[in-house]
């Protein structure tokens, strides 16, 4: 995996810098700035122009794409999204991840698994990352509605995209990008057949949304309900580990 190697023994070089803006968002930020300047300079409507200029900064901030230090351990599953863990439940994986899709690659096994739902507000980074390293087997887009992404039914009713990744040892992880009330487009960076590293950028969702992760059988969550995650850095689970973890909100 390309990048600066950092570890817990002090190796590597770290310095603060402004997070870059993803190319997908630059056009929106520039358009917002131009409209702001039209009101400020062209029409001399400061009461409209200044709020629009502040909104322009918010647009750029929404599409920020900071670097992340991704743990390099084959036994770990990392968070694919920044946000709040709003749901942890035992569910059946989506049908699109299970049925034979004609590609010759088997999907997930049927049966209950742990699903972790991460809600992204408009203030979170919206770049999504691969929870494991492997090959993209499926990327299935499904049109739908735009109900509140915090609701459980959003997994089945909202516009969404299912992504299935298989490691070299055959283990598969599925996760779903779900559009929310404000989100109106899921932007993929990968397609079936692509190989990705753990923590690699795989897509984004505009503006406010959710990501569901389906852990493999026999694996429990290492994050707690109400905990915040950082894409590519927070460890969601350790493969094959089942242990009750409790936390106290304080």
- Total tally of structural domains: 2
Strand content: 25-35%
- Distance between the amino and carboxyl termini: 38 Å
Task: Give Rg in angstroms.
Answer: 19 Å
Q: What does the main sheet amount to?
A: 8 strands, antiparallel
CATH topology of the largest domain: Glucose Permease (Domain IIA)
At the first level of CATH, the class of the largest domain is: Mainly Beta
The amount of helix comes to: 10-25%
Number of strands: 13
Total of helices: 4
Helix and strand run: HHEEHEEEHEEEEEEEE
Major β-sheet strand ordering? 9-5-6-7-11-3-2-12
Shape: globular
What is the mean pLDDT? Answer: 89
Main location: membrane
Subunit structure: Heterodimer of a large membrane-associated beta subunit and a small pyruvoyl-containing alpha subunit.
EC number: 4.1.1.65
Modified residues (Pyruvic acid (Ser)): 209
How does this structure look, described?
β6 (about 160-165) and β7 form a beta hairpin. The protein folds into 2 domains: about 25-60; about 75-240, Glucose Permease (Domain IIA). The protein is globular. The chain is built from 4 helices and 13 strands. It has helices spanning about 25-40, 45-60, 95-100, 155; strands at about 75-80, 85-90, 115-120, 125-130, 135-140, 160-165, 170-180, 185-190, 195, 200-205, 210-215, 230, 235-240. The strands form 3 sheets. Strands 9-5-6-7-11-3-2-12 form an 8-stranded antiparallel beta sheet, with no helix packed on it. Strands 4-10-8 form a 3-stranded antiparallel beta sheet, with no helix packed on it. A two-stranded antiparallel ribbon has the order 1-13. The mean pLDDT is about 90. With about 250 residues, it is of the alpha+beta class.
């Amino acid at each position: 995996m390309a990048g600066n190697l950092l570890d817990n023994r002090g190796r590597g070089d770290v310095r603060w810098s402004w997070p870059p803006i993803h190319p997908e968002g630059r056009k929106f930020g520039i358009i917002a700035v131009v409209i702001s300047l039209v009101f400020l300079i062209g029409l001399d409507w400061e009461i409209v122009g200044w709020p629009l200029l502040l909104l322009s900064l918010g647009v750029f901030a929404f599409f920020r794409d900071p670097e992340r230090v991704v743990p390099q351990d084959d036994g770990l599953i990392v968070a694919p999204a920044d946000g709040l863990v709003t749901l942890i439940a035992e569910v059946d994986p989506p049908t699109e991840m299970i049925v034979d899709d004609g590609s010759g690659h088997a999907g997930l096994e049927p049966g209950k698994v742990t699903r972790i739902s991460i809600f992204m507000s408009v203030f979170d980074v919206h770049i999504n990352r691969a929870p494991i390293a492997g090959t993209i087997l499926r990327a299935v887009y499904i049109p739908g509605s735009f109900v509140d992404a915090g609701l459980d039914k959003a997994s089945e009713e909202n516009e969404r995209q299912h992504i299935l990744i298989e490691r070299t040892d055959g283990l598969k992880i599925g996760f779903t990008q779900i559009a929310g009330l404000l989100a109106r487009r899921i932007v993929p960076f990968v397609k079936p057949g692509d190989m990705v590293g753990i923590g690699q950028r795989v897509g984004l969702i505009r503006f406010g949304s959710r990501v569901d992760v389906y852990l493999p059988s026999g694996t429990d969550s290492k994050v707690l309900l109400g905990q915040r995650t950082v894409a590519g850095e927070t460890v969601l689970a350790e493969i094959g580990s089942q242990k009750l973890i409790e936390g106290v909100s304080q």
